[in-house]
Each structure stands twice: as structure tokens, then as C-alpha cells.
Amino acid sequence: MSEQEARRHRARVWGAAARRLSSSPVETTVGRRLRELADWADADGCAGLPPDVYGDGPVEEVEQRVAEVLGLPAAVFFPTGTMAQQVALRCWSGRTGNPVVALHPLAHPEVHEGGALSAVSGLRTVRLTDEPRLPTAEEVRDHPEPFGTLMLELPLRDAGFVLPTWDELVDVVEAARERDAVVHVDGARLWECAPHFGRELPEIAGLADSVYVSFYKSLGGISGAALAGPEEVMDEARVWRHRYGGLPFQQFPAAVAALRGLALELPRLPSYVAHARVVADGLRAGLTEAGVPWFRVHPGTPHTHQFQVWLPYAPEALTAASLALTEETGTVLFRRWSPPGPGGPPGVAVTEVTVGEPGLAWTERDVREAVAAFLAHLP
User: Fold this and answer.
1) In terms of Cα–Cα distance, which of 177, 176, 219, 170 is closest to 197?
2) Spatial distance between the Cα atoms of 255 and 59, rounded to a whole number of angstroms
3) Which of 91, 182, 185, 252 lies in disulfide reach of 211, CB 3.0 to 4.6 Å?
4) Are the C-beta atoms of residues 67 and 74 closer than 8 Å to each other?
5) Burial 138-177 (b: 16+ CB within 10 A, else e)
6) How many CA atoms lie within 13 A of 225 on its CB side?
7) Cβ distance 295 to 309 under 8 Å?
8) H/E stretch holding 12
């Protein structure tokens, strides 16, 4: 079986499961997604409206809604987050006169974008810390090289969806201001950060000069992103969006899906974050009861509705056990497992756990029982 065939087989099995902690957009069908979107559009009353043409109509509605939710002056819709951040950092580079971007080595542009910041936009990055957390105010102040923009990924996904405390975040932003640097937030998953910080989204977004948000990672959208910030910067961002090829003739499916996510999923995210702590406790208890010699649930208390689980087995064996559990019981506890990144410890694997609407029905006991059944499928 090829890797593509294996991926499709896993998607079919996990997509047909009766119980899961969260739903995945790759485990459904085209017809189901389209019907879901059409049903919501009918109920919302927007189904009879005309589609967008080069960024008007529902695309403009998304932009207005994002600006309102984040409490920022303006927002611009982009087809991808990679493009949105390229444009944001390019705009700030022109304004500061400094092409250097300070960020974390696990930040999305460093790991998942193929060096696009330098190859496409002529920017250069510097790293403030190698620790698996956001940089501290002291690290920002003490960095020996000038930089024009500080980019903060909130939460830092590849470090375990981790966040600083509110006071730490405020101190980091103040340290950047002391260096005359602007602050850009990679907020692909910013939507779910409010419970951890104990602040509303406008107060969080208001710390930054610009913010990028995604519509498919936590809001269940099809694709798309938005960049929000000052009017004059967003006006320039529209120019660069067109130059980067980011203004398709029509984007109404992605725009309507974004509006649906903002209406339905955004208000539910705090309940997912709260229940992720119940699930994390259940996983920890189940693994302890089973006598697993070493494991890690990280962070111990999840900062958002997503977190990591580490186990001392080969990723292939753990993925196979995840699939076997679903085939046998109709339950999805874990999905794919991966080896640690470069420099990570040998002999272990990691997976990401997301708690969504389906997971709210799980008790800690349900999680413990699922862990026992999962471990029974390991060699």
C-alpha cells in the first residue's frame, strides 16, 4: 500500500468512527462538506446573496467581522496564512527600514514554509532562544543584533501549543517597543488563547501591531486567513496580496466557511479548552494505571484545546495501534504519531491531541478506558 493509499485508508476508518475527541476536515467527504456549508448559509440567510468577485461580497464581510472580533481597525482576507505573513512582514520591513525578523526556531516560517521569508520576500531571520517556549523580555532586550519586527507565534504549536503568561507577554511586547521594533503575532490559533490569558481577544490582539489568524485550524473552515492591523498597513497589504497572486476571481466557499466558523465554532472554543484539561488528566491517569514506563502529556495542563502526548514506541507502531483501536471499537483516541524533530530524543514518538465538540461528551473515565484499549494493540 502506497503512502497515499494508507493515508486515505486511515481517513476512511477514522472518519467513520462513532466516537472521537475531535473531527478532522480530512476525514469527511466533499459532499458532506458542501451540504454542511449550504445548510448553514440557508439558516444564516446568506445563501441567496451573490458570490464575491475579486474580494468583495462575502470576502469583505469576513474582513469586517475579523476586524470587529479582534478590535483592530481593518483586516484583509488571504487565501493562505503563509502569504498573509509574508505580506505583513514585508510591509513592516519597508516601514522600519530593517529586513530582520526575530522569531522562534520552531515558528511556522522557519519550519513549514521552505525558507520563503528570504527566498520570496528578501527578509532575514534571527532567533532569540532555542528553548521550547516563547522568548522572554530579557532575551528580547539582550539580543545583540538589531531587528525591525518581533514575530510571536501564539500558541507556539511545535513546542506543544504553549503560551506565556499574560504578564510575560506584556513584558515581551514592551521589550520589543524599547528596541523600536514592531510586533507581529502569528495567531493562526489565537482564537483559543483567551481562556489561558484571562483576557478577551481585542485586548490580546491590541498588544500587537498586526495579527494573522487562520480560518481552518480551529474554526473548521475550508481554507483562508486574515491579516489585521492599522488601516494604512492593510491598504498596502492589499497591494502586495495582488502582487503575490492572492486575489482569485472568487473565494466565496472559503469566505462562507470562515463566517460559519466565526459564528458557530468561535463561541465554543472556551469549552473545548476547559475540557482539554479533563482529557489530559484522563490520559495521564490511564497511562499511569497501565504502567507505561515513560510518557509525557505536554503541557501538563493544556494552555489551549490542543496538546502533545509522547510515548516510548516507534511512531509506526503507535499509528497502527491508533488505527486498530478504531477498527475494533469505533473510537478515535489518537491519530498519526511522528518521530521527534531534529535533535529530539531517540526511541520516542509524539502526537497532537485536539479536543473539539465531539470530545465534550468524554469523561475522564472514558479516556482512561480508551487508553487501556489503545495500549492493548501495542506489541
Assistant:
1) 170
2) 5
3) 185
4) yes
5) ebbbebeeebbbbbbbbbbbbbbbbbbeeeebebbbebbe
6) 25
7) yes
8) helix 3-15
Q: How far apart are CA 375 and CA 80, in angstroms?
A: 38
Q: Which three cell numbers stand for residue 166?
A: 499574560
Backbone angles phi, psi at 265, to 5 degrees: -85, -40
Residue environment code for 302-325, b if the CB has 16+ CB neighbours within 10 A, otherwise e: bbbbbbbbbbebbbeebbebbbbb
pTM for the full predicted model = 0.96
Residue 355's nearest CA partner among 336, 330, 333 is: 333
Closest to 224 measured CA to CA, from 25, 81, 41:
81
In this prediction, residue 1 carries a pLDDT of: 76
pLDDT per position as a tens digit, 152-182: 999 999 999 999 999 999 999 999 999 999 9
For residue range 58-113, what is the model confidence (pLDDT) as tens digits? 999 999 999 999 999 999 999 999 999 999 999 999 999 999 999 999 999 999 99
Where are the extended beta strands (E) located within 54-146?
74-78, 100-103, 124-127
Query: According to the model, what pLDDT value does residue 4 have?
Result: 87
